Protein backbone atom coordinates (compact mmCIF):
# COMPACT_ATOMS: atom_id res chain seq x y z
CA UNK A 1 0.00 0.00 0.00
CA UNK A 2 2.67 2.50 1.02
CA UNK A 3 5.88 2.51 -0.99
CA UNK A 4 8.70 4.79 -2.13
CA UNK A 5 9.25 7.07 0.82
CA UNK A 6 9.93 10.68 0.01
CA UNK A 7 11.92 13.21 2.04
CA UNK A 8 9.02 14.18 4.27
CA UNK A 9 8.58 12.19 7.44
CA UNK A 10 6.52 11.94 10.57
CA UNK A 11 8.31 11.03 13.81
CA UNK A 12 9.86 7.58 13.62
CA UNK A 13 8.47 4.98 16.02
CA UNK A 14 11.88 4.67 17.66
CA UNK A 15 11.85 8.39 18.42
CA UNK A 16 8.67 8.28 20.50
CA UNK A 17 9.28 8.03 24.22
CA UNK A 18 6.86 6.59 26.74
CA UNK A 19 4.22 9.07 27.82
CA UNK A 20 5.06 10.80 31.08
CA UNK A 21 4.08 8.58 33.98
CA UNK A 22 3.36 5.60 31.72
CA UNK A 23 6.76 3.95 31.68
CA UNK A 24 6.44 0.20 31.25
CA UNK A 25 3.19 0.44 29.28
CA UNK A 26 4.50 -2.25 26.91
CA UNK A 27 3.82 -4.97 29.49
CA UNK A 28 0.09 -4.56 28.89
CA UNK A 29 0.34 -5.98 25.36
CA UNK A 30 1.87 -9.02 23.60
CA UNK A 31 5.45 -8.78 22.29
CA UNK A 32 4.34 -8.86 18.64
CA UNK A 33 2.55 -5.54 19.03
CA UNK A 34 5.77 -3.59 19.65
CA UNK A 35 7.52 -1.56 16.98
CA UNK A 36 10.73 -3.14 15.68
CA UNK A 37 13.84 -1.24 14.47
CA UNK A 38 13.01 -1.99 10.82
CA UNK A 39 9.55 -0.45 11.27
CA UNK A 40 11.19 3.00 11.18
CA UNK A 41 11.45 2.58 7.41
CA UNK A 42 7.68 2.20 6.91
CA UNK A 43 4.69 4.54 6.98
CA UNK A 44 2.07 3.90 9.68
CA UNK A 45 -1.08 5.80 10.55
CA UNK A 46 -3.07 5.92 13.75
CA UNK A 47 -6.31 3.92 13.42
CA UNK A 48 -8.39 6.36 15.41
CA UNK A 49 -11.51 5.20 13.57
CA UNK A 50 -11.65 1.88 15.39
CA UNK A 51 -9.38 2.65 18.37
CA UNK A 52 -9.95 6.29 19.40
CA UNK A 53 -8.91 5.63 23.00
CA UNK A 54 -6.15 3.92 24.93
CA UNK A 55 -6.44 0.13 24.69
CA UNK A 56 -6.83 -1.61 28.08
CA UNK A 57 -4.85 -4.84 28.34
CA UNK A 58 -7.69 -7.28 27.66
CA UNK A 59 -9.13 -5.15 24.86
CA UNK A 60 -5.90 -5.72 22.94
CA UNK A 61 -7.70 -8.82 21.67
CA UNK A 62 -9.93 -6.52 19.56
CA UNK A 63 -7.00 -5.60 17.35
CA UNK A 64 -5.14 -8.91 17.45
CA UNK A 65 -8.02 -11.11 16.32
CA UNK A 66 -9.65 -8.80 13.74
CA UNK A 67 -6.38 -8.19 11.89
CA UNK A 68 -5.70 -11.92 12.00
CA UNK A 69 -9.03 -12.56 10.30
CA UNK A 70 -8.93 -9.66 7.82
CA UNK A 71 -5.51 -10.67 6.54
CA UNK A 72 -6.45 -14.34 6.34
CA UNK A 73 -9.41 -13.54 4.10
CA UNK A 74 -7.72 -10.99 1.84
CA UNK A 75 -4.33 -12.66 1.56
CA UNK A 76 -4.86 -16.39 1.98
CA UNK A 77 -8.45 -17.26 1.09
CA UNK A 78 -9.58 -14.88 -1.64
CA UNK A 79 -6.14 -13.75 -2.88
CA UNK A 80 -6.76 -10.02 -3.34
CA UNK A 81 -4.38 -9.09 -6.18
CA UNK A 82 -2.66 -5.95 -4.87
CA UNK A 83 -2.70 -6.36 -1.11
CA UNK A 84 -1.95 -8.88 1.58
CA UNK A 85 -3.10 -8.09 5.12
CA UNK A 86 -2.78 -5.33 7.68
CA UNK A 87 0.05 -5.18 10.21
CA UNK A 88 -0.46 -3.32 13.45
CA UNK A 89 1.64 -2.06 16.31
CA UNK A 90 0.76 -0.44 19.62
CA UNK A 91 2.53 2.71 20.76
CA UNK A 92 1.68 4.35 24.08
CA UNK A 93 -1.59 2.43 24.06
CA UNK A 94 -2.63 3.51 20.52
CA UNK A 95 -3.04 1.27 17.47
CA UNK A 96 -1.05 2.12 14.32
CA UNK A 97 -1.52 0.19 11.10
CA UNK A 98 -0.01 -0.32 7.67
CA UNK A 99 -0.85 -2.72 4.87
CA UNK A 100 1.47 -4.96 2.91
CA UNK A 101 1.11 -4.19 -0.77
CA UNK A 102 1.75 -6.61 -3.63
CA UNK A 103 3.75 -4.66 -6.21
CA UNK A 104 5.36 -7.28 -8.46
CA UNK A 105 3.29 -7.35 -11.72
CA UNK A 106 3.76 -11.09 -12.20
CA UNK A 107 2.61 -11.86 -8.67
CA UNK A 108 -0.35 -9.49 -9.03
CA UNK A 109 -1.44 -11.32 -12.16
CA UNK A 110 -1.03 -14.68 -10.44
CA UNK A 111 -3.10 -13.55 -7.49
CA UNK A 112 -5.68 -11.98 -9.80
CA UNK A 113 -6.26 -15.36 -11.46
CA UNK A 114 -6.91 -16.94 -8.07
CA UNK A 115 -9.06 -13.98 -6.98
CA UNK A 116 -11.29 -14.23 -10.03
CA UNK A 117 -11.95 -17.90 -9.34
CA UNK A 118 -12.41 -17.62 -5.58
CA UNK A 119 -14.14 -14.25 -5.25
CA UNK A 120 -16.02 -14.94 -8.45
CA UNK A 121 -17.65 -17.96 -6.79
CA UNK A 122 -18.94 -15.74 -3.98
CA UNK A 123 -20.10 -12.94 -6.28
CA UNK A 124 -21.93 -15.41 -8.54
CA UNK A 125 -23.69 -17.09 -5.60
CA UNK A 126 -23.89 -14.11 -3.23
CA UNK A 127 -27.51 -14.33 -2.09
CA UNK A 128 -27.39 -18.08 -1.46
CA UNK A 129 -24.04 -17.89 0.36
CA UNK A 130 -25.24 -14.92 2.41
CA UNK A 131 -28.14 -17.01 3.74
CA UNK A 132 -25.55 -19.55 4.90
CA UNK A 133 -23.53 -16.76 6.51
CA UNK A 134 -26.61 -15.55 8.36
CA UNK A 135 -27.18 -19.03 9.76
CA UNK A 136 -23.53 -19.40 10.82
CA UNK A 137 -23.36 -16.05 12.59
CA UNK A 138 -26.66 -16.60 14.40
CA UNK A 139 -25.38 -20.02 15.52
CA UNK A 140 -22.20 -18.39 16.87
CA UNK A 141 -24.29 -15.85 18.78
CA UNK A 142 -26.35 -18.67 20.27
CA UNK A 143 -23.12 -20.40 21.30
CA UNK A 144 -21.64 -17.35 23.04
CA UNK A 145 -24.94 -16.73 24.82
CA UNK A 146 -24.97 -20.35 26.03
CA UNK A 147 -21.48 -20.23 27.56
CA UNK A 148 -21.75 -20.56 31.33
CA UNK A 149 -19.39 -19.25 33.97
CA UNK A 150 -19.08 -22.23 36.36
CA UNK A 151 -20.16 -21.97 39.98
CA UNK A 152 -17.71 -23.61 42.35
CA UNK A 153 -19.47 -25.07 45.38
CA UNK A 154 -18.15 -26.86 48.44
CA UNK A 155 -18.98 -30.14 46.70
CA UNK A 156 -19.80 -30.64 43.05
CA UNK A 157 -23.42 -31.54 42.45
CA UNK A 158 -24.24 -35.20 43.00
CA UNK A 159 -25.35 -35.48 39.38
CA UNK A 160 -21.73 -35.05 38.29
CA UNK A 161 -21.03 -38.34 40.06
CA UNK A 162 -24.20 -40.25 39.28
CA UNK A 163 -24.03 -39.18 35.65
CA UNK A 164 -20.38 -40.27 35.46
CA UNK A 165 -19.46 -37.00 33.77
CA UNK A 166 -15.83 -37.76 34.39
CA UNK A 167 -14.56 -34.28 35.20
CA UNK A 168 -15.11 -31.79 38.00
CA UNK A 169 -16.51 -28.33 37.48
CA UNK A 170 -13.16 -26.57 37.91
CA UNK A 171 -12.13 -28.02 34.54
CA UNK A 172 -14.81 -25.85 32.92
CA UNK A 173 -13.26 -22.59 34.11
CA UNK A 174 -10.61 -22.47 31.42
CA UNK A 175 -12.56 -24.54 28.89
CA UNK A 176 -15.47 -22.11 28.90
CA UNK A 177 -13.20 -19.07 28.96
CA UNK A 178 -11.30 -20.54 26.00
CA UNK A 179 -14.66 -21.10 24.33
CA UNK A 180 -15.41 -17.37 24.53
CA UNK A 181 -12.07 -16.44 22.97
CA UNK A 182 -12.31 -19.12 20.28
CA UNK A 183 -15.84 -18.04 19.34
CA UNK A 184 -14.71 -14.41 19.17
CA UNK A 185 -11.95 -15.44 16.76
CA UNK A 186 -14.32 -17.48 14.62
CA UNK A 187 -16.83 -14.61 14.57
CA UNK A 188 -14.20 -12.26 13.14
CA UNK A 189 -13.30 -14.75 10.41
CA UNK A 190 -16.96 -14.96 9.45
CA UNK A 191 -17.25 -11.19 9.84
CA UNK A 192 -14.56 -10.48 7.25
CA UNK A 193 -15.50 -13.38 4.96
CA UNK A 194 -18.06 -11.24 3.12
CA UNK A 195 -16.90 -7.81 4.29
CA UNK A 196 -13.66 -7.68 2.31
CA UNK A 197 -15.43 -8.92 -0.82
CA UNK A 198 -18.04 -6.19 -0.39
CA UNK A 199 -15.32 -3.55 -0.17
CA UNK A 200 -13.50 -5.19 -3.08
CA UNK A 201 -16.52 -4.88 -5.38
CA UNK A 202 -16.93 -1.23 -4.44
CA UNK A 203 -13.23 -0.45 -4.95
CA UNK A 204 -13.37 -1.88 -8.49
CA UNK A 205 -16.45 0.25 -9.30
CA UNK A 206 -14.87 3.29 -7.65
CA UNK A 207 -11.69 2.95 -9.73
CA UNK A 208 -13.72 2.50 -12.92
CA UNK A 209 -15.68 5.70 -12.20
CA UNK A 210 -12.55 7.64 -11.30
CA UNK A 211 -10.95 6.68 -14.63
CA UNK A 212 -14.10 7.11 -16.74
CA UNK A 213 -15.21 10.37 -15.09
CA UNK A 214 -12.06 12.21 -13.91
CA UNK A 215 -14.08 15.04 -12.35
CA UNK A 216 -16.42 12.83 -10.32
CA UNK A 217 -16.36 13.29 -6.55
CA UNK A 218 -16.08 10.40 -4.14
CA UNK A 219 -19.48 11.24 -2.66
CA UNK A 220 -21.17 11.03 -6.05
CA UNK A 221 -19.92 7.47 -6.51
CA UNK A 222 -21.12 6.58 -3.02
CA UNK A 223 -24.59 8.02 -3.66
CA UNK A 224 -25.07 5.55 -6.52
CA UNK A 225 -25.34 2.76 -3.92
CA UNK A 226 -27.27 4.72 -1.24
CA UNK A 227 -30.78 3.94 -0.02
CA UNK A 228 -30.09 0.63 1.70
CA UNK A 229 -32.45 -1.26 3.98
CA UNK A 230 -30.02 -2.86 6.42
CA UNK A 231 -30.16 -4.53 9.82
CA UNK A 232 -27.95 -1.92 11.47
CA UNK A 233 -30.82 0.57 11.39
CA UNK A 234 -33.34 -1.73 13.10
CA UNK A 235 -32.46 -0.64 16.67
CA UNK A 236 -33.43 2.89 15.67
CA UNK A 237 -36.69 1.61 14.16
CA UNK A 238 -37.46 -0.12 17.45
CA UNK A 239 -37.03 3.20 19.27
CA UNK A 240 -39.51 4.84 16.91
CA UNK A 241 -42.02 2.07 17.68
CA UNK A 242 -41.52 2.67 21.41
CA UNK A 243 -42.01 6.41 20.90
CA UNK A 244 -45.23 5.78 18.98
CA UNK A 245 -46.44 3.48 21.76
CA UNK A 246 -45.69 6.15 24.36
CA UNK A 247 -47.90 8.60 22.47
CA UNK A 248 -50.65 6.00 22.01
CA UNK A 249 -50.66 5.15 25.73
CA UNK A 250 -50.64 8.83 26.79
CA UNK A 251 -47.17 8.55 28.32
CA UNK A 252 -45.52 11.24 26.22
CA UNK A 253 -45.13 13.64 29.16
CA UNK A 254 -42.58 11.31 30.75
CA UNK A 255 -40.12 11.60 27.86
CA UNK A 256 -38.43 14.98 28.12
CA UNK A 257 -35.03 16.28 27.07
CA UNK A 258 -32.37 15.42 29.65
CA UNK A 259 -34.52 12.86 31.46
CA UNK A 260 -32.53 10.23 33.34
CA UNK A 261 -33.43 6.67 32.25
CA UNK A 262 -33.75 5.36 35.82
CA UNK A 263 -36.19 8.12 36.77
CA UNK A 264 -38.21 7.67 33.58
CA UNK A 265 -38.45 3.91 34.20
CA UNK A 266 -39.55 4.53 37.79
CA UNK A 267 -42.23 6.97 36.63
CA UNK A 268 -43.47 4.46 34.06
CA UNK A 269 -43.83 1.91 36.82
CA UNK A 270 -46.28 4.25 38.53
CA UNK A 271 -48.53 4.68 35.48
CA UNK A 272 -50.54 1.52 35.86
CA UNK A 273 -51.43 -0.70 32.92
CA UNK A 274 -50.18 1.80 30.33
CA UNK A 275 -46.76 2.00 31.96
CA UNK A 276 -46.62 -1.78 32.30
CA UNK A 277 -47.46 -2.23 28.61
CA UNK A 278 -44.71 0.19 27.57
CA UNK A 279 -42.14 -1.47 29.83
CA UNK A 280 -43.07 -4.88 28.43
CA UNK A 281 -42.57 -3.55 24.89
CA UNK A 282 -39.17 -2.19 25.95
CA UNK A 283 -38.11 -5.60 27.27
CA UNK A 284 -39.27 -7.28 24.08
CA UNK A 285 -37.26 -4.84 21.94
CA UNK A 286 -34.11 -5.26 24.02
CA UNK A 287 -33.32 -8.76 22.78
CA UNK A 288 -31.69 -8.53 20.33
CA UNK A 289 -32.03 -4.90 19.24
CA UNK A 290 -30.53 -3.25 22.34
CA UNK A 291 -27.37 -5.37 22.10
CA UNK A 292 -25.88 -2.48 20.16
CA UNK A 293 -22.74 -0.82 21.51
CA UNK A 294 -22.49 2.93 21.91
CA UNK A 295 -19.07 2.54 20.29
CA UNK A 296 -17.99 0.28 17.47
CA UNK A 297 -17.44 -2.92 19.44
CA UNK A 298 -13.73 -2.58 20.24
CA UNK A 299 -13.77 -1.52 23.92
CA UNK A 300 -15.30 -3.33 26.88
CA UNK A 301 -16.41 -0.04 28.46
CA UNK A 302 -18.41 1.07 25.41
CA UNK A 303 -21.52 -0.47 26.82
CA UNK A 304 -24.54 -1.61 24.85
CA UNK A 305 -27.97 -0.04 25.10
CA UNK A 306 -29.02 -3.10 27.09
CA UNK A 307 -26.29 -2.29 29.65
CA UNK A 308 -26.79 1.50 29.61
CA UNK A 309 -30.00 3.16 28.37
CA UNK A 310 -28.47 6.64 27.98
CA UNK A 311 -28.37 6.70 24.17
CA UNK A 312 -31.88 5.36 23.45
CA UNK A 313 -33.42 7.54 26.13
CA UNK A 314 -31.60 10.58 24.72
CA UNK A 315 -33.34 9.94 21.39
CA UNK A 316 -36.85 9.05 22.62
CA UNK A 317 -38.01 12.58 23.61
CA UNK A 318 -37.42 13.88 20.09
CA UNK A 319 -39.18 10.91 18.49
CA UNK A 320 -42.13 11.28 20.87
CA UNK A 321 -42.41 14.99 20.07
CA UNK A 322 -42.23 14.36 16.32
CA UNK A 323 -44.89 11.64 16.44
CA UNK A 324 -47.20 13.87 18.47
CA UNK A 325 -46.73 16.49 15.77
CA UNK A 326 -47.60 14.05 13.00
CA UNK A 327 -44.09 13.87 11.54
CA UNK A 328 -42.99 11.05 9.25
CA UNK A 329 -40.03 9.33 10.91
CA UNK A 330 -39.16 6.95 8.09
CA UNK A 331 -35.66 7.26 6.70
CA UNK A 332 -35.63 8.83 3.20
CA UNK A 333 -34.74 5.49 1.60
CA UNK A 334 -37.13 5.93 -1.33
CA UNK A 335 -35.80 9.39 -2.11
CA UNK A 336 -32.22 8.15 -1.89
CA UNK A 337 -33.02 5.23 -4.18
CA UNK A 338 -34.58 7.57 -6.77
CA UNK A 339 -31.60 9.88 -6.50
CA UNK A 340 -29.11 7.05 -6.97
CA UNK A 341 -30.89 6.03 -10.18
CA UNK A 342 -30.82 9.58 -11.48
CA UNK A 343 -27.11 9.99 -10.74
CA UNK A 344 -26.24 6.59 -12.21
CA UNK A 345 -28.13 7.28 -15.42
CA UNK A 346 -26.53 10.71 -15.82
CA UNK A 347 -23.03 9.25 -15.61
CA UNK A 348 -23.89 6.18 -17.66
CA UNK A 349 -25.00 8.47 -20.49
CA UNK A 350 -21.50 9.98 -20.57
CA UNK A 351 -19.92 6.63 -21.47
CA UNK A 352 -18.96 6.07 -25.09
CA UNK A 353 -19.83 2.56 -26.23
CA UNK A 354 -22.08 -0.33 -25.29
CA UNK A 355 -19.14 -2.28 -23.86
CA UNK A 356 -18.33 0.45 -21.34
CA UNK A 357 -22.00 0.82 -20.41
CA UNK A 358 -22.34 -2.92 -19.92
CA UNK A 359 -19.27 -2.94 -17.64
CA UNK A 360 -20.71 0.02 -15.70
CA UNK A 361 -24.06 -1.76 -15.31
CA UNK A 362 -22.41 -4.99 -14.15
CA UNK A 363 -20.16 -3.34 -11.57
CA UNK A 364 -22.88 -1.07 -10.20
CA UNK A 365 -25.32 -3.98 -10.01
CA UNK A 366 -22.81 -6.06 -8.06
CA UNK A 367 -22.14 -3.15 -5.68
CA UNK A 368 -25.82 -2.73 -4.94
CA UNK A 369 -26.17 -6.45 -4.36
CA UNK A 370 -23.23 -6.85 -1.99
CA UNK A 371 -22.99 -3.49 -0.28
CA UNK A 372 -25.92 -3.79 2.17
CA UNK A 373 -23.89 -6.52 3.89
CA UNK A 374 -21.21 -3.99 4.81
CA UNK A 375 -23.63 -2.27 7.19
CA UNK A 376 -25.86 -5.23 8.11
CA UNK A 377 -22.99 -7.37 9.36
CA UNK A 378 -22.06 -4.80 11.98
CA UNK A 379 -25.14 -5.42 14.07
CA UNK A 380 -24.53 -9.16 14.27
CA UNK A 381 -20.75 -9.01 14.70
CA UNK A 382 -19.46 -5.85 16.34
CA UNK A 383 -22.62 -5.32 18.36
CA UNK A 384 -24.83 -8.32 19.22
CA UNK A 385 -22.04 -10.92 19.39
CA UNK A 386 -19.42 -8.59 20.89
CA UNK A 387 -21.83 -7.28 23.54
CA UNK A 388 -22.43 -10.86 24.64
CA UNK A 389 -18.69 -11.62 24.51
CA UNK A 390 -17.76 -8.76 26.81
CA UNK A 391 -20.64 -9.65 29.15
CA UNK A 392 -19.25 -13.19 29.47
CA UNK A 393 -15.71 -11.93 30.14
CA UNK A 394 -17.13 -9.56 32.75
CA UNK A 395 -18.83 -12.55 34.38
CA UNK A 396 -15.50 -14.39 34.55
CA UNK A 397 -14.16 -11.25 36.19
CA UNK A 398 -16.97 -11.55 38.72
CA UNK A 399 -15.88 -15.10 39.52
CA UNK A 400 -12.28 -13.97 40.02
CA UNK A 401 -13.48 -11.14 42.26
CA UNK A 402 -15.68 -13.51 44.29
CA UNK A 403 -12.65 -15.77 44.81
CA UNK A 404 -10.55 -12.81 45.98
CA UNK A 405 -8.13 -12.85 43.04
CA UNK A 406 -9.33 -9.49 41.75
CA UNK A 407 -10.73 -6.58 43.72
CA UNK A 408 -13.72 -6.15 41.38
CA UNK A 409 -15.15 -7.75 38.25
CA UNK A 410 -14.13 -4.92 35.88
CA UNK A 411 -10.48 -5.48 36.79
CA UNK A 412 -10.44 -8.51 34.49
CA UNK A 413 -10.14 -6.09 31.57
CA UNK A 414 -6.74 -4.95 32.85
CA UNK A 415 -5.33 -8.45 32.27
CA UNK A 416 -4.38 -9.85 28.88
CA UNK A 417 -6.53 -12.81 27.89
CA UNK A 418 -3.58 -15.17 28.45
CA UNK A 419 -3.18 -13.72 31.95
CA UNK A 420 -6.84 -14.36 32.68
CA UNK A 421 -6.13 -18.02 31.97
CA UNK A 422 -3.39 -18.00 34.60
CA UNK A 423 -5.73 -16.38 37.13
CA UNK A 424 -8.37 -19.01 36.41
CA UNK A 425 -5.77 -21.78 36.85
CA UNK A 426 -5.04 -20.33 40.28
CA UNK A 427 -8.73 -20.72 41.15
CA UNK A 428 -8.85 -24.24 39.70
CA UNK A 429 -5.92 -25.32 41.88
CA UNK A 430 -7.12 -23.66 45.06
CA UNK A 431 -10.60 -25.22 44.78
CA UNK A 432 -9.13 -28.62 44.01
CA UNK A 433 -6.59 -28.59 46.85
CA UNK A 434 -8.68 -26.92 49.50
CA UNK A 435 -6.09 -24.19 49.63
CA UNK A 436 -6.28 -20.46 48.99
CA UNK A 437 -5.83 -18.55 45.74
CA UNK A 438 -2.49 -16.74 45.56
CA UNK A 439 -3.56 -14.29 42.83
CA UNK A 440 -4.58 -11.36 45.02
CA UNK A 441 -1.01 -10.39 45.94
CA UNK A 442 0.14 -11.00 42.35
CA UNK A 443 -2.64 -9.56 40.17
CA UNK A 444 -4.10 -6.73 42.21
CA UNK A 445 -0.90 -4.63 42.25
CA UNK A 446 -0.54 -5.24 38.48
CA UNK A 447 -4.13 -4.10 37.90
CA UNK A 448 -3.61 -0.97 40.01
CA UNK A 449 -0.43 -0.14 38.11
CA UNK A 450 -2.13 -0.65 34.74
CA UNK A 451 -5.04 1.56 35.70
CA UNK A 452 -2.53 4.27 36.55
CA UNK A 453 -0.71 3.71 33.22
CA UNK A 454 -3.95 3.89 31.22
CA UNK A 455 -4.81 7.18 32.94
CA UNK A 456 -1.35 8.55 32.08
CA UNK A 457 -1.60 7.38 28.46
CA UNK A 458 -4.98 9.05 28.08
CA UNK A 459 -3.29 12.43 28.29
CA UNK A 460 -0.84 11.63 25.47
CA UNK A 461 -1.57 13.11 22.03
CA UNK A 462 -0.72 10.47 19.40
CA UNK A 463 0.84 11.65 16.13
CA UNK A 464 -1.58 10.98 13.25
CA UNK A 465 1.14 9.03 11.45
CA UNK A 466 4.66 7.66 11.91
CA UNK A 467 7.59 7.13 9.59
CA UNK A 468 8.57 8.38 6.13
CA UNK A 469 5.79 9.68 3.90
CA UNK A 470 5.37 7.71 0.66
CA UNK A 471 5.41 9.46 -2.69
CA UNK A 472 1.75 8.68 -3.25
CA UNK A 473 -1.13 7.62 -1.04
CA UNK A 474 -3.49 6.21 -3.61
CA UNK A 475 -4.96 3.14 -1.99
CA UNK A 476 -8.71 3.56 -2.58
CA UNK A 477 -9.75 1.46 0.43
CA UNK A 478 -7.61 3.53 2.79
CA UNK A 479 -9.00 6.69 1.25
CA UNK A 480 -12.64 5.59 1.45
CA UNK A 481 -12.55 4.12 4.95
CA UNK A 482 -10.02 6.23 6.83
CA UNK A 483 -9.85 9.32 4.62
CA UNK A 484 -6.03 9.13 4.38
CA UNK A 485 -4.82 10.81 1.17
CA UNK A 486 -1.91 13.01 0.09
CA UNK A 487 -3.99 16.04 1.09
CA UNK A 488 -4.71 14.57 4.52
CA UNK A 489 -1.03 13.91 5.12
CA UNK A 490 -0.12 17.42 4.01
CA UNK A 491 -2.59 18.80 6.55
CA UNK A 492 -1.12 16.56 9.26
CA UNK A 493 2.35 17.86 8.41
CA UNK A 494 1.10 21.43 8.66
CA UNK A 495 2.01 22.25 5.08
CA UNK A 496 -1.32 23.79 4.11
CA UNK A 497 -2.02 27.40 5.01
CA UNK A 498 -5.71 27.30 5.85
CA UNK A 499 -8.04 29.99 7.10
CA UNK A 500 -8.23 29.47 10.86
CA UNK A 501 -12.01 29.64 10.57
CA UNK A 502 -12.20 26.87 7.96
CA UNK A 503 -11.92 23.12 8.52
CA UNK A 504 -11.75 20.93 5.42
CA UNK A 505 -12.58 17.27 5.01
CA UNK A 506 -14.52 14.86 2.81
CA UNK A 507 -17.94 15.78 1.46
CA UNK A 508 -19.66 12.74 2.94
CA UNK A 509 -23.35 13.61 2.73
CA UNK A 510 -24.94 16.51 0.81
CA UNK A 511 -26.59 19.62 2.18
CA UNK A 512 -25.63 22.87 3.91
CA UNK A 513 -26.77 23.79 7.41
CA UNK A 514 -25.78 26.10 10.25
CA UNK A 515 -25.95 25.26 13.91
CA UNK A 516 -24.26 25.31 17.30
CA UNK A 517 -21.45 22.79 17.71
CA UNK A 518 -21.41 20.06 20.32
CA UNK A 519 -17.92 18.57 20.59
CA UNK A 520 -17.78 15.09 22.10
CA UNK A 521 -14.47 13.73 23.34
CA UNK A 522 -15.83 10.22 23.89
CA UNK A 523 -18.91 8.16 23.14
CA UNK A 524 -19.81 8.26 26.82
CA UNK A 525 -20.78 11.93 26.40
CA UNK A 526 -23.39 11.25 23.74
CA UNK A 527 -26.24 11.97 26.15
CA UNK A 528 -25.18 15.64 26.14
CA UNK A 529 -26.33 16.23 22.55
CA UNK A 530 -29.27 18.60 22.24
CA UNK A 531 -31.83 19.24 19.53
CA UNK A 532 -30.51 20.96 16.40
CA UNK A 533 -26.83 20.92 17.34
CA UNK A 534 -23.96 20.02 15.02
CA UNK A 535 -22.19 16.90 16.28
CA UNK A 536 -18.38 17.22 16.19
CA UNK A 537 -16.40 14.15 17.22
CA UNK A 538 -13.35 12.04 16.43
CA UNK A 539 -15.45 9.29 14.87
CA UNK A 540 -19.07 8.17 15.03
CA UNK A 541 -20.54 4.69 15.25
CA UNK A 542 -23.57 3.35 13.38
CA UNK A 543 -25.30 2.85 16.71
CA UNK A 544 -25.51 6.62 17.07
CA UNK A 545 -28.22 6.59 14.39
CA UNK A 546 -31.03 7.55 16.79
CA UNK A 547 -29.12 10.65 17.85
CA UNK A 548 -28.82 11.62 14.17
CA UNK A 549 -32.52 12.42 14.34
CA UNK A 550 -31.73 15.25 16.78
CA UNK A 551 -28.71 16.87 15.16
CA UNK A 552 -28.45 19.22 12.20
CA UNK A 553 -25.20 17.79 10.81
CA UNK A 554 -22.19 15.64 11.68
CA UNK A 555 -18.47 16.44 11.49
CA UNK A 556 -15.71 13.94 12.29
CA UNK A 557 -11.92 13.88 12.44
CA UNK A 558 -11.68 10.39 10.97
CA UNK A 559 -13.26 8.66 7.99
CA UNK A 560 -13.68 8.69 4.24
CA UNK A 561 -16.74 8.73 2.02
CA UNK A 562 -17.45 5.05 2.68
CA UNK A 563 -16.80 5.13 6.43
CA UNK A 564 -19.75 4.14 8.56
CA UNK A 565 -20.30 7.74 9.67
CA UNK A 566 -20.63 8.82 6.04
CA UNK A 567 -22.94 5.95 5.13
CA UNK A 568 -25.24 6.55 8.10
CA UNK A 569 -25.39 10.30 7.43
CA UNK A 570 -26.46 9.70 3.82
CA UNK A 571 -29.08 7.18 4.87
CA UNK A 572 -30.55 9.71 7.30
CA UNK A 573 -30.40 12.50 4.71
CA UNK A 574 -28.20 14.67 6.92
CA UNK A 575 -25.21 16.83 5.86
CA UNK A 576 -21.84 15.49 6.96
CA UNK A 577 -18.15 16.26 6.57
CA UNK A 578 -15.72 13.52 7.64
CA UNK A 579 -11.97 12.99 7.69
CA UNK A 580 -11.18 16.57 8.73
CA UNK A 581 -8.32 15.40 10.95
CA UNK A 582 -8.71 18.40 13.23
CA UNK A 583 -12.34 19.35 13.79
CA UNK A 584 -12.31 18.38 17.48
CA UNK A 585 -9.26 20.55 18.14
CA UNK A 586 -10.36 23.54 16.03
CA UNK A 587 -14.03 23.70 17.02
CA UNK A 588 -15.37 24.26 20.51
CA UNK A 589 -18.77 23.42 22.00
CA UNK A 590 -20.95 26.50 21.57
CA UNK A 591 -19.29 27.69 18.34
CA UNK A 592 -21.74 28.46 15.57
CA UNK A 593 -20.66 26.58 12.44
CA UNK A 594 -21.75 26.12 8.84
CA UNK A 595 -21.44 22.56 7.54
CA UNK A 596 -21.21 22.27 3.76
CA UNK A 597 -21.69 18.59 2.99
CA UNK A 598 -21.51 19.27 -0.74
CA UNK A 599 -17.96 20.66 -0.67
CA UNK A 600 -16.54 19.12 2.51
CA UNK A 601 -16.05 22.45 4.30
CA UNK A 602 -16.90 23.47 7.87
CA UNK A 603 -16.79 27.20 8.61
CA UNK A 604 -16.56 28.50 12.16
CA UNK A 605 -18.88 31.52 12.20
CA UNK A 606 -18.39 32.66 15.77
Task: List the main descriptive attributes of the protein structure presented here.
Phosphohistidine_dom_sf, four-stranded antiparallel sheet, PEP-util_enz_mobile_dom, disordered N terminus, Glucose Oxidase, domain 1, PEP_Utilizing_Enz, alpha+beta, globular, 14 strands, 606 residues, eight-stranded mixed sheet
How many strand segments?
14
Described by strand count, sense and barrel closure, the largest sheet is: 8 strands, mixed
Strand order of the largest sheet: 7-14-13-9-10-11-12-8
Oligomeric category: single chain
Unreliable segments of 5+ consecutive residues = 1-6
Q: How does the overall form come out from the CA principal axes?
A: globular
The amount of helix comes to: 40-55%
Q: Report Rg.
A: 25 Å
Structure class: alpha+beta
Distance between the termini: 41 Å
Helical segment tally?
A: 19
The averaged pLDDT comes out at 90
Strand fraction equals 5-15%
Domain PEP-utilising enzyme mobile: 530-600
InterPro entries: PEP-util_enz_mobile_dom (IPR008279), PEP_Utilizing_Enz (IPR051549), Phosphohistidine_dom_sf (IPR036637)
Organism: Pseudonocardia aurantiaca
Protein name: PEP-utilizing enzyme
Describe the protein in words.
This is PEP-utilizing enzyme. Pfam families: PEP-utilizers. It comes from Pseudonocardia aurantiaca. There is one protein chain. This protein is an alpha+beta fold. Among the domains are: 5-120 and 456-476, no CATH class; 498-604, Glucose Oxidase, domain 1, CATH 3.50.30. Helix content is 50%, strand content 11%. It is built from 19 helices and 14 strands. The chain has helices at 61-77, 105-124, 126-146, 158-162, 171-212, 218-223, 234-248, 261-269, 272-289, 310-324, 333-348, 354-402, 417-433, 439-458, 476-482, 486-493, 545-548, 564-571, 583-586; strands at 5-9, 44-46, 83-91, 94-101, 465-466, 468-470, 502-504, 506-509, 512-520, 534-537, 553-556, 576-578, 592-596, 601-604. The strands form 3 sheets. An 8-stranded mixed β-sheet has the order 7-14-13-9-10-11-12-8. Strands 3-4-2-5 form a 4-stranded antiparallel β-sheet. Strand 11, helix 18 (564-571) and strand 12 (576-578) form a beta-alpha-beta unit. Helix 1 crosses helix 5 and helix 5 (171-212) runs antiparallel to helix 13. The longest helix is centred in the middle third of the chain and has 49 residues, at 354-402. Mean pLDDT is 90; it is low at 1-6.
Amino acid sequence: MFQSAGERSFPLPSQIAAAAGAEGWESMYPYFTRFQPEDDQRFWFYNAMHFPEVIPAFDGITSEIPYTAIGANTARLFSFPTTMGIEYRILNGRVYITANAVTDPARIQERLTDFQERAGHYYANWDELYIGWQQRIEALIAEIEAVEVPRLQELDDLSVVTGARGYATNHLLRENFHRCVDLYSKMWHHHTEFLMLGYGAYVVFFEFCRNAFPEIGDQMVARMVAGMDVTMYQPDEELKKLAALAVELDLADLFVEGGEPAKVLAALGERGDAGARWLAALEEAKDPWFHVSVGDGFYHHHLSWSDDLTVPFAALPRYVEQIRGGADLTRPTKRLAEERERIAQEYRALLGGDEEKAAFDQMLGLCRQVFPYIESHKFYCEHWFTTRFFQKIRAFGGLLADRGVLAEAEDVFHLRHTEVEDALADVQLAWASGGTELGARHWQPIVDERKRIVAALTGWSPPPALGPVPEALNDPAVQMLWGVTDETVQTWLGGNELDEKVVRGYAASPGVVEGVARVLESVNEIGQIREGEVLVCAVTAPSWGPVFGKIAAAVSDIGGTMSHAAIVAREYGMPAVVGTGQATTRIRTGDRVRVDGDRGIVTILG
